[in-house]
Amino acid sequence: MARFAVILPAAGASSRFQDKHYKKPFAPLAGRAVWLHSLHRFSQREDVIQIIVAVAPDDREDFLSRFSADITLLGVQVVEGGRERADSVHNALRHVKSDAEFVCVHDAARPCLSELWIDAVFQKAQQTGAAILAVPVTATLKRVDQSGVIVATQPREELWEAQTPQVFRRDWLLEAYEKRGGFPATDDAQLVERLGKKVHVVPGSSLNIKITTRDDLKLAEEILKVLPKPKGLGPIHPFAGDDLWR
Prior knowledge:
By secondary structure, the protein is of the alpha/beta class. It has helices at residues 34-43, 60-66, 68-74, 85-93, 115-128, 170-178, 188-193, 214-226; strands at 4-10, 28-29, 32-33, 48-55, 77-80, 102-105, 130-136, 141-144, 150-154, 160-169, 200-203.
C-alpha cells in the first residue's frame, strides 16, 4: 500500500471572508471548524501516514490552544505558514516523513470532500505520479480590460477549473519547490508542470467548493448534508462553539 502525507494550508489572510472574528478555515461550519471537516476526510485513511497543517505565525498560539484535543488525538503536526500559499506548502514539505511516497495538498478551507474523490485522485497519482481533482469549465468566459469592457470571448473547450486534493510523487513535488524561485504559483500542479511532468486530471465535483466568503458557509452546510460522513467521525468537541478569534 502506497503511503501518503497530507498538507493542509491554513495560513491565508482570508481578506475576502470579511469576518472580524474568524479566518475562513477556523469559522464554525455544522458544529465544527471548517478545517476539521477537511482533516477528518483524511485522518481515518490507512494510507495516510502524516497530516500537516500550516497556520500563520500570529495564529499559532491560539490555534494550538483551541484545537489541542484534535491535534493530539489525530496526531496532527502544526507548522508555520508563509506569506504566500506556496510558501506555506514549502515550509510543510520540509517536515514530510521520508517514508511518504506521495504528498497530497488540500485546501483547509475546502471542507466538502468525498472519500470517493480522494480514492480516485490517490489512485491516479499512484499510476501516473501526479493528479489533481478538477471540473470542466461550463460558463462563458469573457476577457475584460481595465475599464470593464469585454475584449474577447474565450473558448471554454479543454478548460478545467483546478480543485484540491492535488497529489504528487514526493520527489517530484520537492524538486518543483526547490526550483520554484520566486515564481508566483497559484497551485502546486503549476510548479510540477514547470518540471515538464505530466499532471493528470481526475473529474471532481461542483460540490467540492472552497470557502471564500461568509455566504459560502451556508452553501457548504447544505452540501455536507448530502455527502457521506467520513468514517470514524467522532462527537463534536465540547468546546467546538467557542470563539477563537474574538
